[in-house]
Write a structure and sequence with these properties.
765 residues, alpha/beta, 8-stranded parallel beta sheet, 5-stranded parallel beta sheet, 27 helices, 22 strands, 12% strand, globular, UROD/MetE-like_sf, metal-binding, Cobalamin-indep_Met_synthase
């Protein structure tokens, strides 16, 4: 029985690629140094899978930034502003597209389906001249082959690539992106021909958009694309891989009718309905790549249950045509559990990271072949029994409190307009008030202080003194810049979710459980293993300390329940909404304690609310109901004069704008600049928004410093569709990833732009 891995994490077990990228970007190392680190990581990944007995090992899933951007490079679809003149696309052009540079903005970045990974959105139009701009897929296949590993090169499929793209600036928004299929397929043919010539016997096309609600003409594009590629694919086996959800019946029929495709990959963890479709009929002679090992979570597979499921599939597709696989790329999980030397041993026994999932895949494949490792299966069964019966998982009081929430709407008694009036009387803010999103640059010294405190090399007194000094610097800087509503800069936090999870019951933490979010940005998701509660206040000490340093309003900074949920590895033994309600109750206690301590502006970030939206429209309503309800629970008890902010970043919000309004926050700050001000189109189309709103005026994920004039122009565009009295001026997101040399001038220009427009508005009266 064969085994297959859809894809693998890129950063390395100790984030080796992250540090190599940042060193290269800072000019401290060469391109050759970066390439050497990358080659070593790829070699170790291929060896690991080969040694584990995996038959179908992926290549070209490694990326210096993002696999969709890699496809853009492969197709030579470089936006004209980057002045690419042809030839093999190098790091300069590639990273300018990803990150921008001193003079040019980056391409748009948005969430990859419903994950916390971000991809770079291709900008396409009728005038794009596609050409074979990157030979990365072929080069990596040859590289693996030279090491003695025959891999399956992975390409983002042509139809999904176009469906994930957007019309370039200046191109009609209604431009049919699928009309470019005939222009990109010749490049795919060149790549396929090169892979065949290099000796590839299998090629994997990732077509994850097949799990979405597609119209008939979009499904027809798949039929057309693979019919066009059929002659080129002759002599090579082809996998079309889907993941993240069920494949709808119409898409399943379209996919399994593709005659040139040898095998089909399905997510059978999140795809119970797909399983029923397979049982209802699977094409004879085709391979089924059965994704039974979860690529998106860290819980150990239930090997006995998976083996039962695989045995039933074996009867449908045939013993020689069933391949055991992961549900999706392992990019979305942590790298290796063996690096977790300090994790609680009982909890550790319940887990499997990417390296362990490879072993699980192979163990299942061997068991199906009659080589079942009884010791492995017995240990797995014992771990599952331990988790089910562990008293640390269940807290009856928490479960009762969460269950009691379902009978109420949890909405503040006064409408937002009246609340804003009461808040303005108390806060006395100017029109176009300025603020930032929360974090300020995380300096080397600051990271050292946190690291030494965690390692008990400095005392709590020394730690508190150092953090207060950092807060004082951030407060003083904001006052010098004349920002209206301040933040304390979050110097005590390495990660916004980890910080809260460490102080809540039911959470566990890893030392090296890093997962890539975008580029070199990695996050270390907490593990929610049990019922959640708040033993003690979490932020009150730091928020009150910061407020004592200024007469200006100081925001209390919290992470919302939906974001904590969506940015964690969540327990899979109860519905997600039940866990979310538990977190909401814990955050509610913190909000009320902040208010009692005199904090009058409280920001409850819900950066990941959109991220958790199911991929199928039929499931949107249920998710949005409990997600929005969870947010409202957190602040239902505060006074009218307490201003509740929330923040959302890097996603497409237009289709859920009414749910955002239903959150009933007093002020929302939201990403806007990197997506070509897509958000503003909602208001141009007539949606009325009565609460405060701050669409981001500049992109903090780029080192580029915008001018005062550029920011003023953005604010003017906002004023064309939003009332002056509700508009806030702020960056797109937190500033922790930037340097002070970038942050200071950008914020100076932001404040100057706000003052300029205040003056213009006053003189126009």
């Amino acid at each position: 029985m064969a085994s297959h891995i859809v894809g693998y994490p890129r950063m390395g077990p100790k984030r080796e690629l992250k540090f190599a990228l940042e060193s290269f970007w800072d000019g401290k190392s060469s391109a050759e140094d970066l390439e050497k680190v990358a080659a070593d990581l790829r070699a170790s990944i291929w060896k690991q899978m080969s040694d584990a007995g995996i038959k179908y090992i992926p290549s070209n899933t490694f990326s210096y930034y993002d696999q969709v951007l890699d496809t853009t490079a492969m197709l030579g679809a470089v936006p004209p502003r980057y002045n690419w003149t042809g030839g093999e696309i190098g790091f300069s052009t590639y990273f300018s597209m990803a990150r921008g540079n001193a003079s040019l903005p980056a391409m748009e970045m948005t969430k990859w389906f419903d994950t916390n990974y971000h991809f770079i959105v291709p900008e396409l139009g009728p005038d794009v001249k596609f050409s074979y701009g990157s030979h990365k897929a072929v080069n990596e296949y040859k590289e693996a082959k030279a090491l003695g590993v025959d891999t399956v090169p992975v390409l983002v499929g042509p139809v999904s690539y176009l469906l994930l793209s957007k019309p370039a600036k200046g191109v009609e928004k209604t431009f049919p992106l699928l009309s470019l299929l005939d222009k990109i397929l010749p490049i795919y043919k060149e790549v396929i021909a090169d892979l065949k010539a290099a000796g590839a016997s299998w090629i994997q096309f990732d077509e994850p958009t097949l799990v979405k609600d597609l119209e008939s003409h979009q499904l027809e594009a798949f039929t057309k694309a693979y019919a066009e590629l059929e002659s080129t694919l002759s002599g090579v086996n082809t996998i079309v891989e889907t993941y993240f959800a069920d494949v709808p019946a119409a898409a399943y029929k379209t996919l399994t009718s593709l005659s040139c495709v040898s095998g089909f990959g399905f997510d059978l963890v999140r795809g119970a309905q797909t399983l029923e479709l397979i049982k209802g009929g699977f094409p004879a002679g085709k391979y089924l790549f059965a994704g039974v090992v979860d690529g998106r979570n860290i819980w150990a597979n239930d090997l006995a249950a998976s083996l039962t499921e695989l045995s039933s599939l074996e009867g449908i597709v045939g013993k020689d045509k069933l391949v055991v696989s992961t549900s999706c790329s392992l990019l979305h999980t942590a790298v290796d559990l063996s690096n977790e030397t300090k994790l609680d041993q009982e909890i550790k026994s319940w887990l499997a990271f990417a390296a362990q999932k490879i072993v699980e895949v192979n163990a299942l494949a061997k068991a199906l072949s009659g080589e079942k490792d009884e010791a492995v299966f017995s240990a797995n069964a014992a771990a599952h029994a331990s988790r089910k019966s562990s008293p640390r998982v269940n807290n009856e009081a928490v479960q009762k409190a969460a269950a009691a929430l379902r009978g109420s709407d949890h909405r503040r008694a006064t409408n937002v307009s009246a609340r804003l009036d009461a808040q303005q009387k108390k806060l006395n803010l100017p029109i176009l008030p300025t603020t930032t999103i929360g974090s300020f640059p995380q300096t080397v010294e600051l990271r050292r202080v946190r690291r030494e405190y965690k390692a008990k090399k400095i005392s709590e007194e020394e730690y508190v003194k150092a953090i207060k000094e950092e807060i004082s610097k951030v407060v003083k800087l904001q006052e010098e810049l004349d920002i209206d509503v301040l933040v304390h800069g979050e110097p005590e936090r390495n990660d916004m979710v980890e910080y809260f999870g460490e102080q809540l019951s039911g959470f566990a933490f890893t030392a090296n459980g890093w997962v890539q979010s975008y580029g070199s940005r990695c996050v270390k998701p907490p593990i929610i293993y049990g019922d959640v509660s708040r033993p003690n206040p979490m932020t009150v000490f730091w928020s009150t300390a910061a407020q004592s340093m200024t007469k200006r309003p100081m925001k209390g900074m919290l992470t919302g329940p939906v974001t904590i949920l969506n940015w964690s590895f969540v327990r899979n033994d109860q519905p997600r909404f039940e866990t979310c309600y538990q977190i909401a109750l814990a955050i509610k206690e913190e909000v009320e304690d902040l208010e009692k301590a005199g904090i009058t502006v409280i920001q409850i970030d819900e950066a990941a609310l959109r991220e958790g939206l199911p991929l199928r429209k039929s499931e949107h309503g249920f998710y949005l109901d409990w997600a929005v309800h969870s947010f409202r629970i957190t602040n239902v008890g505060v006074q009218d004069t307490t201003q509740i902010h929330t923040h959302m970043c890097y996603s497409n919000f237009n289709d859920i704008i009414h749910s955002i309004i239903n959150m009933d926050a007093d002020v929302i700050t939201i990403e806007n600049s990197r997506s070509d001000e897509k958000l503003l189109s909602v208001f141009r189309e007539g949606v009325k928004y009565g609460a405060g709103i701050g669409p981001g005026v500049y992109d903090i994920h780029s080192p580029r410093i915008p001018s005062t004039e550029e920011i003023a122009d953005r604010i003017n565009k906002m004023l064309a569709v939003l009332e002056t009295n509700i508009l806030w001026v702020n960056p797109d997101c937190g500033l922790k990833t930037r340097k002070y040399g970038e942050v200071k001038p950008a914020l100076e220009h932001m404040v100057a732009a706000a003052k300029l427009l205040r003056k213009n508005l006053a003189s126009a009266k």
